[in-house]
Design a protein that fits this description.
11 helices; 2 domains; 9-stranded mixed sheet; globular; 27% strand; Ubiquitin-like (UB roll); alpha+beta; 409 residues; 6-stranded mixed sheet; L-amino peptidase D-ALA esterase/amidase; homodimer; 15 strands
């Protein structure tokens, strides 16, 4: 049995998943007076199971360490509170005190335990949170909680930093007439690389599943979504993906071998992949979305190394920005991944246009190469013809705007 | 016995080392009519021993493979012929034919064997060499060979691509009244990363040494010079360092334990280090020269991983460009090297100004941080306080000019 899954940008928002509510408010975390939304809250009335994946950076922000601790130690969770504008990273003992205070305040107002409230922060590293403002924000966010599209969208806006637009995706499917919803929001923009990004993503679902099975499903989905994107090769201190599942639909998706279980995993993966693509597409001053498909590598890990070498090469990324079909730079980057690439065996395509065949560049195709790389979205396929390893990476160009944007904060 | 070594930018040129001659000519490799010099020749009248280090990229240009082959197979060498403007990389079998033809022509005109002539090419990847022009260039270069400063400088100019200035360094020392000269030229500019760079460096010396001992000395010098720099993290298909030693001085430097042997190794390392620093300082559209010193790492390899993570981070490099003392990005990059960094143990300095002490940022020093990173040259020291591993890397900022320069060729 294969169930039909509907994936949409305009489906039910994260606060509209049955049993959930959400909100996004302004509390001036940046202390600039800019009225942008900067604190989000997601709340499940019933206890929910949770799963998470986190940055593997040695330097982890206080909220990451807090979330890992409560996720490891608990079975039931109720909420996620997240602020943008300040990462609460490299803030010493004060950072953990502030994170715990955020969880405690939200928990008290929501009538739950502090160890049932995840905390996320994203933004500038190394500055203490303005806790008076955050505290006002949490009060406001609890009051604003609603099962509406408006507050769902507010939550999506409130977690953004240098992103230019909110990112929300919802997948739905039906099992025996019962609807299951998987709805997520995300943010990215810079520091988007291996093992996630300066990124946050939160997913709410009313599927019925155990914590263990949910974690396995998330880890699988993550490998082919948030772990398969790069903007600038920098990995942040704060990357976090959290999923809450409250069982409200009554549809049991525990077993990956059942139709419902399969559909849930596909829906979760689709939500994560769409959010990941939106993150790359909205990378800092990005003008191109480029998919790098590496095939025929000795193994999947080797394919990934090649894809990342290409997707993070400054010379490759700047050539994309300039609409220059500079396949030589692609080949050079693939070569320094050092997976044993044999030039004479390599095939390369821009979209479906042959570029290199068995190591020989097909210069007659130059006009078509130029058309392909001038597009806002195109793919590069590298077949190493050495084995069956494969990996697909979504990357972006590097523009003068990126440098201008990041030269100071 | 410790011998005094003199290192100078304006010492004897590479063609003025006793027994050597050099030249640099224009032959229009780029086929643009631009009268810039683009073919260099270095010639030792006597047979010389040689040593080389080469790119470790899986994709090696034809001249790199040729040079590795003749270096492995021979004992005596006479010349290096090098063109800029075209890398002769990813050019298939034609590429190797062209390289062999360059060696054969130069050898015939010089009265030596083709297997005694190294060939180097640097420039755009994936285009066949214009062999008629190259052939004219080799004729002209052989005629122009001279033991003069002018032709030495011409050779230094002729190997440049996007560099803005020639790079030459000479070290001299005396042993029992006999002078020994070690003189080198180099080029870099882009693709400057691990295990060398889009770089070429040629060193001529009249020291008397065996091939084996010379190779060991070069490998040591290389580790702390050309392998300790980064501009954009890209490693090229053509990186090559070659040393020719013709013994003309009569000073035996074979044994590293003797005063002469020590002095020679110091002189060779000094020449390589000065050339490496000039390469970073003349990186594409670079405005800052930043030295990253990592200390107290678990071991030297871990220190190197941390230094490269920091030195290649786009977010760190753009902040340097913007004079922004964004230590948070430095710490973030150090963390994703994943060597087991413990935030609470870390000390960091800009030059000699404390930034982080035992994990705590010293915000009161902000005005001094700003002054330090606004300089054209400054250092960042990271002490992990975990062990005795250390590594020093020279890096550069990333400017809008770099993107503009590289967006198309």
């Amino acid at each position: 049995m294969s169930l039909s899954i509907k994936v949409a940008d305009d489906g039910p928002g994260i606060g509209e998943v049955p049993g959930f509510r959400a909100s996004g408010v302004h509390c001036d975390v940046r202390c600039t007076g800019n009225p942008r939304l900067d604190l989000a809250l997601i709340f499940s009335e019933k206890p929910a199971v949770a799963a998470g994946v986190f940055t593997t950076n040695d330097v982890k922000a206080a909220p990451v360490r807090f979330d890992q601790r409560i996720l490891d130690g608990g079975e039931n969770f109720h909420a996620i509170v997240a602020n943008s504008g300040n990462a609460n990273a490299c803030t010493g003992e004060q950072g953990m005190c502030d994170t715990e205070a955020m969880a405690a305040q939200a928990a008290q107002l929501l009538g739950v335990e502090a160890a049932q409230v995840f905390v996320c922060s994203t933004g500038r590293i190394g500055r203490a949170l303005p806790m008076d403002k955050i505290s006002n924000g949490i009060n406001g966010a609890v009051k604003a909680l609603a099962a509406t599209k408006e507050q769902s969208l507010n939550a999506a806006w409130a977690i953004l930093t240098s992103d230019t637009r909110p990112k929300a995706v919802t997948a739905t499917f039906e099992v025996d007439g019962k609807a299951v919803t998987v709805s997520g929001i995300g943010k990215g923009a810079g520091m988007i690389e291996p093992n996630m990004a300066t990124m946050l993503a939160f997913v709410a679902t009313d599927a019925l599943v155990s914590k263990k099975s949910l974690q396995a499903a998330l880890s699988d989905a993550n490998a082919e979504s948030f772990n398969a994107i790069t903007v600038d090769g920098d990995m942040s201190t704060n990357d976090t993906v959290l999923v809450l599942a409250n069982g409200e639909s009554g549809v049991n998706v525990e077993d990956a071998a059942t139709g419902a279980g399969q559909a849930f995993r596909s829906a979760l993966k689709a939500v994560c992949q769409k959010l990941a693509e939106k993150i790359v597409g909205d990378g800092e001053r990005v003008t191109k979305f480029v998919t790098i498909k590496v095939e025929g590598a000795p193994d999947d890990a080797a394919a990934q190394r090649v894809a990342r070498a290409v997707g993070n090469s400054l010379l490759v990324k700047t050539s994309w920005y300039g609409n220059d079909p500079n396949w030589g730079r692609v080949l050079d980057a693939a070569g320094y991944a050092r997976v044993g690439l044999v030039e004479a065996k390599l095939d390369m395509h821009y979209d479906d246009i042959p570029v290199i065949s068995a190591g020989t560049p097909l210069h007659d195709n130059l006009p078509q190469w130029k058309l392909a790389v001038a597009k806002k979205r195109f793919s590069i396929t590298l077949n190493l013809n050495l084995g069956s390893g494969a990996f697909m990476l979504h990357s972006a160009d590097l523009s003068e705007g990126y440098v201008d944007f990041n030269k100071s904060e």
